[in-house]
Each structure stands twice: as C-alpha cells, then as structure tokens.
Amino acid sequence: MSDVITISREQQDFLNCQSNYVCCMAYAGSGKTFILKKFSEKYKEHRILYLAYNKGVQQEAQRKFPDNVKVVTTHALAYRYFADLKQKIKLNFGIFDLAKEFNITSFSLRFIVYKTLSNFYFSADESINISHVPKESQNKKTVYKEPERIEALSIAIKAYCLQADPENDFPCPPDFFIKHYQLTGPSLDKWYDIILLDEAQDVNMVTKALLDKCSCMRIYVGDPHQMINRWRGSFDVLSAAASEGAKVLRLTESYRFGRKVAAIANVVLRLKGENIPLRAYKEDRLLPKKTIQEIYPRTIISRSNLSVIFNAIDAGSKGKKICFVGGVEKYSLWDIVDYYYLKLNEKEKIKNKAILEKYPSWDALVKIAKITTDSTLTRAIVLIDEHGSNVTDIVDSITKSSIKSQDEADLILVTAHSSKGLDWNVVEIDGDFPSMIEYLERIGNKTDQIDYAYINDELNLLYVAVTRAIDTLGISACVMELIMHIQRLQKANKFKPLVSFSQLQ
C-alpha cells in the first residue's frame, strides 16, 4: 500500500495561501493538525509560534511539529515572561482569597469582585471599569445595587494591583497572566515570523488583543460551531477576523467519521443556519439508545458532570470498569462525603479541613452555591439530597470501579466540554442534553425572551459530542427530536434555523 497521502483541494488552498491574515473554518475531524504540520514544514525557514488550546494538545503537537515551531499554550507563554510573578500562581484562586485579603464578609460582594476581575482578565480593555462589574447574579434572580457594584469595582482595582506586584504575595489565577502580558508585554512578532492560533473559536478578547499588536503573518484555525466556552469569556475570533478582512478558507471534509455521523452533524449545523455542509465518505453506523447500551467498551458523553457521576454509579452497580476522562480526582468525590458530614454538623469527620474555612456551615455552603451557581457545589447538594447516608458507599464504589487506562475500561465517561479534541470508536450521546424545541415551545410568542446565545451554545455542545464518534454513534432522544423537527418543517416547506449568526450579534 502506498504511503503517499493525498492532499485535498481545500488543504492545498491552505498551503498555497500567502495572505498575512487568515482565518480557516475547519469542521470537526477535517485534519487541521495535519495541515498545520504540513504548513510548518513548508515554511521551515521561518520562526513559527503555535498557540495550542490546552496542555494536552500542546504536548501532542510538540511531538509532531518540526523544530522551527514553538508550541505553547497562551498561559505558558505569559508565565515565562513574568518569571518574577510565577510563584504567585494559584490555580483555584477564588472568592475566599478575596475575602481573606480584603476582609469581605458579604458572600454577594465576594462574588461580584471575583466576577469583575474575571471579566477584566478576559476583555481587551486596558483598565478595570464599571462595565466589568456584573449587574446581576449568574442565575439572574438578583439585581445588584449600584453602591455594591461601585464598592466591588474599587476592591477589584486594588486586587489587580496587588496581583501585579511581585513584592506582594496576593495570589494570581492563570488568566491574570495573559491579561498582564496583553497590557505590558512586547509584541510577539519580536520573536516570531508566523503565528498559528488553534481552536480560535474559543479564545477570548484578551488573546485577540494580544495578537492584534502583531504585524507578522497570523493564521487563525478553528470551527465556529465548536465554540463552547462563552461562560469563560470566549467569543468567535474567526468571524471577527473575517469581518476585519482576513482571508477566509475552509476545511469541510471530515476524515474521522463517515456519512451517517456527518448527516447527524449536518442536522445541527442546519439548525444553526450553516449553509455549507460537512462532508464525509467512510462507512459508519447509527444505533438507537437501547442497542448501543449493550455494547462494551463504549464512551458516554454527557452534558453535565452530575450525569457523569450518575452513569458511574449505575456502571459500578453492574460491576463495570470505568474510566473518567481527566481522572476521577477531577470530580472531587470525597469532598462530597465531607459536605455530607457538614450537613449533619459532624465536623470532626471532615477530612479536608480547608472546607471548614470556606463553608462554616451547611447553610453557608448552600447559600454560596446559589450565589455563585458553582457546579461542583450544586452537584454535591443534589447527590446528598438524593442519596443521603448512602453517599459514602457510593463514592467508595465509584472510586474502586475507576481505572486510569481507557484501553482497559468497559465505559469511558466524559462531558461534552471535556470531550473536545478527542474521539472514540463507539460513542453514546447521553440523555441529559436539553431540548431546544421544548425551550422554544415554553417561550411561545414571547420572542423577545429568546436567549439565542443559549440555543447556539447548546447546539455547539451537541455538535461537539456527536462528532467524537469514529465508527458507531448512539443517538439520544434530543438528537432524534432535532431530526424530526427538520423533517416536519421541510415537509411543510417552512424550514428555518433555530438560531442565526445575525441573532448572536
């Protein structure tokens, strides 16, 4: 068999492009890593910076790309420049660090200050101002009063100054470093001739502002339909670059999966108003939920962390070996046991004593969970309310059933967010993805209340999930509902997307 790999017309257009500013819309499985590697080999005399989406992607790309390419995450790039601040990095920086430093007793004020800093970190702005201060709680049930917002702004400004001071030990979250580099660091074209930005749909304004300072060749690659981190300040850099005059290229053929998975992906794309379909030519298969649940090994992709845990409980009760993508430690299961003892007021049984510093009582924990909409706390509360005294046995059972090797697992469990960039032979879509049809039916004629960003982001997550399958995809009721929705509208000659690009502006 020949080792020669055929370059498609779209890929050749990418390799031949000489524009100084390029955005490439690359659909799921379309071989963007392959073509970026080929591009780097073509420009082997140039100094190339490849900004990777995360550490895992960075490590894999570092092994594959030629020596003229520096592969690094944006965070790592900033860490290296601010060596005098590196000892201040705190990965889990949060409201309690702010409360301790500034003696903030109000749970609400702690959260507002924290969100103000986060909003500033993600923005392109040069200073913190009132626009970064949230006007309402994340669940939109509480509107913050102006005096509280002004106080939060004042504290946030002081906090940022302390974080930027190498002589002060007030900690810095990773996102601080990118912001600080954007404000004070030199342009990257001082060291590089070409910058490749991977997963460009999921970066935020601060990264774009950092790159806007560069006059060298910039190539942004990603898939707007895989933008899933709006909650972290992400926005579609690809569309922004296109509107600024960047040369637009596309990679629309998937080499990961076949025609049937592509057909499901195209259902989602059509409902998002996308007119250019994803193409695939391999053979694959779709299975109903009942059938795929009899297949082992397989991967279950869930919408929420809570569903991942419930799937683990079910699998453990059947004696199945389970592998959590990212590790079981990611789910902080034994903290849930400590929260249970906190609810019983049996504080002497709590192993992680740091919990008592953050949450002096169960009521305080519940209150903080409501104010911050913290998913970890919310998950713990639901599990404790549903399982009560069985929580300890459940956590112990899950821990014993969990193994590290995906190759040896009966079930691989992962959320849609964490599945991005990965793929598996057999994938089941979990039943916890929300119904966008039901969402619109509930709103009815009150079209001014439609949250189009919510619809877009949920469809993006579903698109990411279904395109992780290589050979076999088990479809859920949510997917079937979308297929039937399109069929009904087409039959009545009334098709229109659930969300369009213009509705997101």
UniProtKB/TrEMBL annotation:
Pfam families: UvrD-helicase (PF00580), UvrD_C (PF13361). SUPFAM superfamilies: P-loop containing nucleoside triphosphate hydrolases. GO terms for molecular function: 3'-5' DNA helicase activity; ATP binding; DNA binding; hydrolase activity. GO terms for biological process: double-strand break repair via homologous recombination; replication fork processing. Gene3D superfamilies: P-loop containing nucleotide triphosphate hydrolases. It is an enzyme of class 5 (isomerase). Residues 9-234 form the UvrD-like helicase ATP-binding domain. This is DNA 3'-5' helicase.
